């Protein structure tokens, strides 16, 4: 399954349509923030306990991807295009930093 196929599938599960309501967008954004917080919690516990629950972290990363993909679909964006744009932005930043 490609990331674009995953986003289309996730959008059906999250009941995202072409014109999502502010409430639906808020729900998805808060879901993303909540799951990112759970990822941060795993990292915090790594610092505190010097042990990482990799399986738990990976599960939370999957939840982050789900909400991110749903938000992509809700805003009419292809996830693959966003990944390409992100990579280009990072390459630009690296290039600019190297030229300083």
Essential attributes:
100 residues, mainly alpha, MazG-related_GP37, Pyrophosphatase
Can you put this structure into words, describing what you see?
Residues 29-93 form the NTP pyrophosphohydrolase MazG-like domain. Pfam families: MazG. It comes from Bradyrhizobium nitroreducens. This is Pyrophosphatase. The chain contains 4 helices and no strands. The protein is mainly alpha-helical and 100 residues long. The N and C termini lie far apart (41 Å). Helix content is 80%, strand content 0%. It has helices at 3-13, 22-49, 54-74, 79-98. It has a single domain, classed as Helix Hairpins (Orthogonal Bundle), CATH 1.10.287. Helix 1 (3-13) crosses helix 3 (54-74).
Largest sheet: none
Q: How would you state the average pLDDT, rounded? A: 96
CATH topology: Helix Hairpins
How much of the polypeptide forms β-strand, as a percent range? under 5%
Report the count of strand segments.
0
What shape does the CA trace take? globular
CA-based gyration radius: 16 Å
CATH superfamily: MazG-like
The computed structural class is mainly alpha
Enumerate the spans where pLDDT stays under 50 for 5 or more consecutive residues: none
Helix content: over 70%
Topology at a glance:
Blueprint: H1 3-13, H2 22-49, H3 54-74, H4 79-98
Task: Give a quick precis of the structure.
By secondary structure, the protein is an all-alpha fold. The protein has helices at 3-13, 22-49, 54-74, 79-98.
């Amino acid at each position: 399954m490609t990331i674009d196929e995953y986003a289309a599938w996730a959008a059906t599960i999250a009941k995202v349509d072409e014109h999502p309501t502010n409430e639906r967008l808020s729900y998805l954004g808060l879901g993303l923030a909540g799951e990112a917080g759970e990822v941060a919690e795993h990292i915090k516990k790594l610092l505190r306990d010097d042990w990482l629950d990799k399986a738990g972290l990976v599960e939370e990363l999957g939840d982050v991807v789900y909400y991110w993909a749903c938000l992509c679909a809700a805003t009419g964006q292809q996830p693959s295009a966003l990944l390409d744009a992100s990579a280009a932005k990072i390459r630009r930043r690296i290039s600019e930093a190297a030229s300083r």
